[in-house]
Amino acid sequence: xxxxxxxxxxxxxxxxxECVREMLQFVEKEKEGDCLVIGFAAKKDNPRAAAxxxxxxxxxxxxxxxxxREAVNLMSKxxxxxxxxxxxxxxxxxxxxxxxxxVSQTVAELIKYCEDxxxxxxxxxxxxxxxxxxxxxxxGCVAL
Length: 144
Description:
Layout: H1 2-10, H2 16-30, H3 35-38, H4 60-63, H5 65-96, H6 103-116, H7 122-125
C-alpha cells in the first residue's frame, strides 16, 4: 500500500486544459480517416445502414415519422449523456485545482497528530474508572 501511494505521488500530473487540448489535437488529426466524422464512401460500406436506417439523421426527411420519433429519442439520450459528461468535466476541473500534499508529509502529520493525542485516548490507555467506559455491559432487570 505504501509503495502504491509513493508511485501515485510521483506521477506527473497535467492540467485538465492541457489534456483537453491534446485530445482535440488528436481528434483533428485523426478525423480524416474516421467514417463516423466524414461518412461512408458508399452506403454498402456502412454496417449499420441495413440494421438501423432511422439513425442516419441526414436521411431523416426521407424515412418517415416513426424514425423521427426515434431520432428525437436518440437526440434526447445524447443530450443527457452530454450533460453527464459536462458534470464529470466540471468535477475533474475542481479536483485538478485542489492543492495536493505529498504522501510522506501527510503521513508524518497523521503520525504526529496521533502521538500528540495518545495520552487522552481511552482505547489506548484504558479507563481509570469503569463508570467512564461507554462500552461496558449495562446492568438490567432480572425477573424471577
